[in-house]
Each structure stands twice: as structure tokens, then as C-alpha cells.
């Protein structure tokens, strides 16, 4: 019986840590990306959501898969449902990286992907992370460079989670069947406004960074001006509504349940990533 784990988005924010964590546990890993490059000691395999002909070769010899949709894509249902189906047909256990809060309404596309997985006849675990701490050294990095993070979050709070804690949770559920058939809401240890987050980042990098609460329209204009496609800019603006409602301030013990360790604080993230935040 095969015992290999396919990791999608293996060169990305969460996937690279999932690969590292699985290799450290001695698991055989196939690292999937469009480029198909090896990641650390894991063999690389070419995979593209938009090219279903890549699914079969990627799933060959695989019994478990970490499935996520890369950032930059809006059509979660259209792109992930065929992947889930291909995995379920082969009885591959799927660990789906979803998004916190999507279980509030069954009409939300990500929730529909979850439901399809729940109804499939294959083992699964759903992980729903909150906003990543890592966004500060990726998406919001230009703002940090200019000393001001401008977002349509009003004064809403989020319990930011470190991608390393999402990955550690993924490794835990991929390497145990104890959590199968369940969903976990992954959060950091404290709910912070973006103004509070900016103060923490300022201190870590030794340079003033403030937060500017902007409107959806101003945010979309800023993103499209920086070259982000209009559809994705509107999508990003729309997902700040739950932040303004403070729904993302929720804190759970799920990371600790899965990994045995408390999740990292934003302060720890900022200290560990100070060089990347300053670069
Ligand atoms: N950021 C947040 O705050 C947050 C919060 C909650 C949930 N989420 C969810 O987390 C997901 C993103 O996770 P992430 O940040 O770890 O991903 P990511 O870093 O954006 O993923 C990039 C990876 O995906 C690969 N990739 C890009 N396009 C691809 C394609 N067409 N087919 C196959 N692979 C492709 C990339 O390699 P190649 O370019 O070589 O293909 C790379 O390995 C999203 O679904 C998002 O909704 C994010």
C-alpha cells in the first residue's frame, strides 16, 4: 500500500512548511506546484488546478493530500471541486485548507467545497485558518515599506495565525486518523486590531508603521493601481466585511488540540520575520 503525501501549493506560504514538517516526520512527500520543482528533499510534481490532466500523475501512488487553493484565485468551487473529486475517486484522504467563518452559510463557495468533501466517500479533515500573520511580509509589505498599512478593516480585530501553526496542524491531521471527519478553526492566541498589529510590527522592525482605515473603494483603487486584477481586488475588499464585524476576533484552542502547542503570537511572528519585514 502506498504511503505518500501530496502537498499542493508546496512552494507557497503554508505548503512549504507542510512539506518541511512532513519530511521531518520521515514521510514521503510529493511537492506540487505548476513549476513542479522539488522542495527540500521532497520530489516535485507539476500540478495546475486549471489543467485536470495534471491531477492523475500528481495523485499517482498517493494516499493522503494537503489541498489548498493558491492566493490570487477567486473561483474556489470551480477550481477545487474537480481536485476533491479526483482525490476522492482514488480514496485519497484529503486535508482541505479552507477559510475561517465559511461554515456560517452553506451558500458560500468555500463552504460548498467543504460540503462536497464531507459528502465524498473518502477520509477528510477540514482546516479553517483565520487571517495569516504572514500577510504582513507578503501582501501588506508595500504598506509596511511606506510606513502605513491601508486596509478596509475599520477597527475590527483578528486573531492572526502564523502559517507555521497552520502547517503544523496540517502535519498533525495528515499523520493521524484521530481527527478524520472533523473541521478545525485555526486561530492565533490574541485578537488584535490592525492599529495594534501595526504597533507590534513597528517595534519589531524599529520603524514607525501606522494603520489607515480606508473604504472598500479606496482599497480597490489602491490595489488596481498596483496592478492587481480588478476582480481579485474586489474579492479582497469583500473579505474585510467579516473583519469589520469582528467575526475574525474569535479565538479557539484548535491549534493546541492538534499540535499540542499554543499558537505563536503576532509578536513572535514579527520577531522571527523581522528581516523579511524590513527587506
Ligand atoms: N492569507 C490569508 O490571510 C488567508 C486566511 C485564511 C485562508 N486563506 C486561504 O489560504 C489559501 C492560500 O494559501 P497560501 O497562502 O499558503 O497559498 P499561496 O502561497 O498563495 O500558494 C502559492 C503556491 O501555489 C502554487 N500555485 C499557484 N498557482 C497554481 C495553480 N494554478 N495550480 C497549482 N498550484 C498553483 C504556487 O506554485 P506555482 O506558482 O509554481 O504554481 C505555490 O506553490 C487561499 O485559498 C486562501 O483563501 C488565506
UniProtKB/TrEMBL annotation:
Residue ranges occupied by any NmrA-like domain in the UniProt entry: 1-240
Entry-linked SUPFAM superfamilies: NAD(P)-binding Rossmann-fold domains
UniProt xrefs under Gene3D superfamilies: NAD(P)-binding Rossmann-like Domain, UDP-galactose 4-epimerase, domain 1
InterPro entries: Ergot_Alk_Oxidoreductase, NAD(P)-bd_dom_sf, NmrA-like
Identification of the protein by name: Hypothetical conserved protein
Species of provenance: Rhizobium etli (strain ATCC 51251 / DSM 11541 / JCM 21823 / NBRC 15573 / CFN 42)
Amino acid at each position: 500500500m502506498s504511503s505518500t503525501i501530496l502537498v499542493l501549493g508546496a512552494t507557497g506560504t503554508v505548503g512549504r512548511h507542510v512539506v518541511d514538517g512532513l519530511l521531518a516526520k520521515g514521510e514521503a512527500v510529493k511537492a506540487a506546484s505548476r513549476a513542479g520543482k522539488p522542495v527540500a528533499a521532497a520530489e516535485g510534481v507539476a500540478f495546475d488546478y486549471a489543467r485536470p490532466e495534471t491531477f492523475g500523475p500528481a495523485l499517482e501512488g498517493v494516499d493522503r493530500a494537503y489541498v489548498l487553493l493558491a492566493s490570487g484565485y477567486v473561483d474556489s468551487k470551480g477550481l477545487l471541486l474537480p481536485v476533491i473529486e479526483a482525490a476522492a475517486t482514488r480514496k485519497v484522504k484529503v486535508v482541505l485548507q479552507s477559510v475561517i467563518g465559511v461554515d456560517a452559510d452553506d451558500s458560500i463557495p468555500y463552504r460548498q467545497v467543504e460540503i462536497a468533501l464531507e459528502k465524498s466517500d473518502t477520509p477528510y479533515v477540514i482546516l479553517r485558518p483565520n487571517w495569516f500573520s504572514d500577510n504582513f511580509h507578503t501582501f501588506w509589505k508595500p504598506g509596511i515599506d511606506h510606513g502605513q498599512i491601508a486596509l478596509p478593516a475599520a477597527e475590527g480585530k483578528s486573531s492572526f495565525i502564523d502559517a507555521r501553526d497552520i502547517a503544523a496542524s496540517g502535519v498533525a491531521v495528515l499523520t493521524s486518523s484521530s481527527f478524520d471527519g472533523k473541521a478545525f478553526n485555526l486561530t492565533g492566541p490574541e485578537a488584535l486590531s490592525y492599529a495594534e498589529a501595526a504597533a507590534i510590527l513597528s517595534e519589531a522592525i524599529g520603524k514607525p508603521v501606522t494603520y489607515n482605515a480606508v473604504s472598500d473603494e479606496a482599497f480597490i483603487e489602491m490595489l488596481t493601481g498596483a496592478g492587481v486584477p480588478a476582480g481579485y481586488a474586489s474579492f479582497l475588499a469583500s473579505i474585510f466585511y467579516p473583519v469589520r464585524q469582528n467575526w475574525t476576533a474569535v479565538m479557539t484552542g484548535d491549534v493546541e488540540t492538534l499540535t499540542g502547542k499554543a499558537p505563536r503570537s503576532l509578536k513572535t511572528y514579527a520577531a522571527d520575520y523581522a528581516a523579511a519585514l524590513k527587506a
